[in-house]
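hey team, just a heads up i'm posting the complex here instead of the shared drive bc the drive is being weird again. everything in one block, sequence lines first with there labels, then the predicted structure for the whole assembly after. its two chains so it's a bit long, scroll down
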Amino acid sequence: MPARIFDAHVRQRQPRVAVIDLEGEINAFAEATLSAAYAEAELHQPKAVLLNFSQVDYINSTGIALIVTLLAKARKAHINLLTCGLSEHYVEIFNITRLADFMSVYPDEATALSAPAAEAEA
Amino acid sequence: MAQLLEVIRRRMPRMRAQTAQVDKPTSRRVPPQPTPVDIAPDDPLVAYFLDTPGAVELDRLKLDSPALRELKAAGVAIAVPLVSQGELVGVLNLGPRMSQQDYSSDDRGLLNTLASQAAPAVRVAQLVRQQQIETRERERIEQELRVARLIQQTLLPKELPEMPGWSLAAYYQPARAVGGDFYDFLPFSDGRLGIVIGDVTDKGVPAALVMATTRSILRTAAQEGQAAPGDVLARANDLLFPDIPPRMFVTCLYGILNPHTGTLVYANAGHDLPHQRQEGGAVELRATGMPLGLMPGMSYEERETILAPGDSVLFYSDGLVEAHNPASEMFGFPRLMTLMSDWTDTTPLIERMLNELASFTGAGWEQEDDVTLVALQREKLACAPVSLPDEEASDDGWQSLTAFQTPSAPGAEREVIAKVETALEPLNLPHKRIEQLKTAVAEATMNAMEHGSHYEPDRPVDIVVRANPAAVSIRIRDTGGDQEIPEAHTPDIEAKLAELQTPRGWGLFLIKSLVDDMRVTSDGVYHTVELIINREGEHHASQNL
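-- predicted structure starts here --
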């Protein structure tokens, strides 16, 4: 099973919330695309960025490191980083790594956008 | 009879009649020296000559004609047009008769007869001369093309570099006019490979010389791979700019491939974007930068991509995408993208592109520009079955489910976890346990390939999957047994978020968190990680961390 192409697209869902739709595998191959997508999301000066993992089927430890990097950037810029669409397994991974302590994990986009973490900041 | 002076050449922008200084009666007879007289194509004298065949006494002619004035000033008394097939091909100009008498009607008749016979002969002579000039010009151009081809072919790589786990192919077909395409490979001593593809505007010898210069500059600027691609192009641009002929420039892409990791770092000076074929589609490898030689002090964006096993990159010149079919349609980038996306490696990539180009342009296509293709492919990984040592099958009731080897390459862990998942299917383990095990196996395999085998293709990693009624065991073995085994520490996420620690370092921690037991052994040659999960109940490892 060779690596799938990773892709990421940025959407504006609320005036100051950007959604990044992630697709494919988050591993070393995803670094440039993920970083570029986050930079694009930051251009809109959002208060919150929602990472949508619903089309992601594999995250390895390098992928975790990429998410840690994004989280560090977001915290520096006082941007609230949120997640949605993680599978049950990757919710467990986010709990084990304590990423979930620093970024709210929601089951889907609608729930995430209506949650206080997005609304209050937006 | 007066002296016949000269004929004029046909098809000259201005007709040039030559006449002679007419001897004065008292002077010694000296051969007359022709004095050229230009007759402009729109001079009224030309129309007069065509309308009035036969010898013309110029003194009697009343025309507002610069040529007529000039002929008279040169002492021409009588002019006889040479007309062939309705075209004025020359004029016989004669001075006064030596006897100082007027030209008689017999003289004029004789001159007219002479003109009617001379005109076709002059015409034939003119055609022969024209053909000789054209032949010499053709030979000169052919010679120039031979020189240009020679320069190009001398400087293109004679051999393709060989890299285990990779294949390289190149194709170069010059157009008749020979453009300035070039490609180059720069093998560096640390195993990395520099890849260059470029195109010089213009054609022929000037383009070939600029190509040769650019190639040398790039080779020097590359500094044995020490310089980053963006810096190499910036340096090449500054060196090329002062000396490149006006209206010429060079598009060029330079990349450095690390064959161990599959990383390709590249910068682009206005060249056509390479296409990367990946699982599920193709992408353009974008990086911005001005062509070389246009403006000094340019900077070049540097980008990076990773070629996973099975991925390919096609570098090409505009001779491919700008080829036209008989309906004047262009081959174009969308067609190339579709071909790259749909390509399967049953046919080599370059062969596939050339087949498509041939069927698009049709038979009898006259190639408009050089066509250059360079294909880089990372070979697919194939997990190979391995035979088990005897004890593996009978050790404490363990039953072997599968045993195989994987080459060491980034991304190879995906193939491994797919095979492990297939092997575990008969055990009907809970989905959650399967997912945990897959992540643990992926991380352990990545560690083995990276730290044990250093991603060297000839140092594969062995995987053995076994089960007994109580547990599942997966052994992952690499050849890094002589290396120290790192301890699994709980990563400090606060320190990582504060950028006090590297964001990496999650692998061992994840493995220990997701399996019930992890046993690490090393015998000086092999390093083995054994992952154990219990077939019943929840695993307990993560609670202990």
